[in-house]
Amino acid sequence: MNKNLSPVLILAISFMLGGAYVGYKHYSAQQAEAAAAARPADLGLFEQLLPDTAGVPQPLSQWKGKPLIVNFWATWCAPCVDEMPELSKLQSKLKDTQIIGIGIDTAENIRNFGSKYQIAYPLYVAGANGVELSRQLGNRNGGLPFTVLFDRNGTPVRTYLGRLHLDQLRDDLAKL
What we know:
By secondary structure, this protein is α/β, with parallel strands linked by helices. It has a single domain, classed as Glutaredoxin (3-Layer(aba) Sandwich). The protein is 41% helix and 18% strand. The chain contains 6 helices and 7 strands. The strands form 2 sheets. A 5-stranded mixed sheet has the order 5-4-3-6-7, sandwiched between helices. A two-stranded antiparallel ribbon has the order 1-2. Strand 1 (49-51) and strand 2 form a beta hairpin. The protein is globular, with a radius of gyration of 15 Å. Mean pLDDT is 83; it is low at 19-42.
């Protein structure tokens, strides 16, 4: 077995079990919002430097100053992959709001996924570190997909655990 495959496999199994747990013990939107509201501003998200699919380190600070939708995902997460075409379509319609995807996976898997599917927003590679970053933003259970809506000041205003309901996201965007 490839030595690099083992940690990725362990991470994938951990997330699958975590996702199953979340399915049984749902972390409500109200709890997620309260957790996000209780945390200071962006919790360092905008200080992150993450590689894009080409391996070029990108400062997330480039997205500050406009509403931002941050979607934590993985290539092995079926609900994550299912919502990405919808997010891509939404990005093409948004004028002043940016969507970014933070992949909790290997650089190679994210690069291959990005090449195979035409995603209309930037994808970044966080690997296992993305789990901790998502937890700092209110994802206590570590489930995927996990999405955070930031206002133009970089303050998280809403979190979503599990597959997004785009009508709810659009309503929340309209309130910004």
